[in-house]
Amino acid sequence: MKVIICGAGQVGWQIARHLSSEKNDVTIVDNNPDLVARAADTLDVNGIAGNASYPDVLASAGAADTDMIIAATYSDEVNMVTCQVAHSVFKIPRKIARLRGQSYLDAIYSDLYQRDHLPIDVVISPEKEVAIQALRQLRSTATFDTEPFMEGKAELLGLTLTDECNVLNTSLRQLSELFYTLRSTVVAVRRNGILFVPNSQEQLSVGDQVYLCTNSEDKERCLEIFGKTNKKQDRVIIIGGGNVGLMVAKGLENNSVKIHTKVIEANRDCAERIADQLERTIVLHGDGLDMDILEEANISKADAVLAVTDDDKTNLLACARAKALGCPMVVALINDPTLTTLLKPLNIDASVNPRATTVSSILRHVRHGRVKAVYSIGDAEAEVIEAQVMSTSPIVGLKIREVEWPNGSIIGAIQKSGKVLKPEGDTKIEEGDFVIIFTLSHDVSEVERLFQVNIDFS
Fold it and tell me: Would you say residue 334 lies in a domain?
């Protein structure tokens, strides 16, 4: 597949990294020659320096025979014009644009993106994706990561193991034997900073970060076995009243259970603006690191604090201070994935990574064939893919134990006739089954080969 990626920032670079590693023909375009050179030097991609919306620049990038264009520059307007030029001049079949401006995303203006207006096939909103992930994380207080699959019938859970875990120093084989009715599978472990797919003899230890795939009906039982419980949240404080903070506050206001929400925003104009848009949320003007403001917000009585300012260090410090003041759950928005190593020393429960959520959202649409969902783990270290088994797949008719899986891949769940099952060695893979696969990034292309989940535009 031939793809042009416009924008060599963090999101564009990560998408290029994913697609080039899977042997796609990738060209990256950016008006910053240094970013283009960095991408070309570190990835197996072509690079063009220039304005992505200029027809001659796209022509130089090979737009005439390109299958897909992903417009992810920092400018909404450049992304929109790029898709228009890609359609009108080069007839590129599939066009994806990242848009931040909230007016562009208003549902009442959705006709704007029809083919005879602005021909954009998929609009990605980073702030919306991050707000959804933040709300999901707030609802799942026992996990540091969570993502639904199979239309909510299955979930990926990230758990940090403590002394309260009931299955420490127990091999995964024994775990399966002890809880044979539990429809959950440990798919990955991060230990001492290294993420790996464990074998059946692996034992779990205190401090391990464990990723599990579970049938949603078994989630609470699964959490209990691993020494976790989801705690009720009545009081939430959001630090940062930008687009993400506003969307999260609106989401909490729309919750069926009443949640007392407060937003702390440092910019007075912004604080006044969001106060006008919220109905039940209390908006406080002040610095989220200021002790007086935190005390005014009654932080010692809060059930959760979510820090979503546009500064990673502020978010980390605000969460660390909230935790020190007695808040049981704190979540920080972190753009720089290298800063996630500070979560444990600062006693921060979970983080939300805008880049990872945006990359996951774009990849979900890039892998358009029989892939229903893609979730990126860590700093593009791994992916969790939900795919349907096609008749052309070489694994159709085989038992799971008969398939030569890559060392960095494992099936976490399988859905047959609408029922989500725990995959066993004797489970037969049949056409039409849906599977959740955890795979380290270097094995993605092999997994796609096994499942024949290539792009189709039908």
Answer: no
